Amino acid sequence: MRFSRRHVSLPHLSMLCFVVLIILTAEKAVSIRFPDRISESVKTASNQPLRTAVFALGSFWRSEAVFGCLDGVVRTTAGYAGGSKVNPDYRSWGDHAESVQIEYNPRLINFRQLLEVFWSSHDSRQVFGQGPDVGNQYRSIIFTNGTEESRLAAVSKEKEQTASKSSIVTTQIQQLAMFYPAEPEHQKFELKRNPFLLQLMGNLPEEELEKSTLAAKLNGFAAEVCPPKIQRQINARIDEIIRRGWPILREL
């Protein structure tokens, strides 16, 4: 139908403007963007550079989520490590294991604490797999950088073996040779399955999402693997956003 200007009375025009204003306001209300300030504050809080740890403990979708919501963790990346194949991918990983790379602030969390999370987040006694995921790519590995990390890993494994009694801990300890990031569709996998959280973040571009500290935390929240205190904290902030309609979340 052709819409002629002479058919629009002043009351109708006012009502049309009002409806347009409501639509525009609604679009903004459901597309709240959390400024990604967490990583910036972590970096500037210390003169020390960030450190990197890499672990393999089953599916990297879940592994990335487990470490992402820890205080002091700045970024997480799902990927491949532990093998000899150059440039592995999800359809051709060779002898690599699905792994997670963790960039962290050593003043807020240390390698020993990351090891504790590693041991508590998977079954180190299961051979070449975790739960229903069976295969060499799901084996348990602690990757180390230097003598001190190797020592800490060995001590923690011995402690785990003592606690396991007759069951053999299958976790390997290896010097990290190379970490290959996985394809974009495997990054922040649990978060991407939650359109509501993505919308709250403002639907960040893929590259920004992969590097976001906030996305790393919400990835763990979406998978429900955060420590209970952090899970409740994030829930409370989301409830606050829903109540207020247009807040700015600067940190979790």
Outline the structure in words:
- With 252 residues, the protein is an alpha+beta fold.
- It is built from ten helices and eight strands.
- It has a six-stranded mixed sheet with strand order 7-6-1-3-2-8. It has a two-stranded antiparallel ribbon with strand order 4-5.
- Helix 3 crosses helix 9 (213-223) and helix 4 (111-120) packs parallel to helix 5 (147-164).
- Mean pLDDT is 82; it is low at 1-46.
Could you give a short description of this structure?
This protein is α+β, with helices and mostly antiparallel strands and 252 residues long.
The beta-strand count equals 8
- The portion of residues forming beta strands comes to 15-25%
Taken in chain order, the helices and strands follow as HHEHEEHEEEHEEHHHHH
Radius of gyration: 23 Å
Name the helicity range: 40-55%
Termini gap: 51 Å
Main sheet characteristics: 6 strands, mixed
Helices and strands: which structural class? alpha+beta
| Poorly predicted ranges | 1-46
Shape: globular
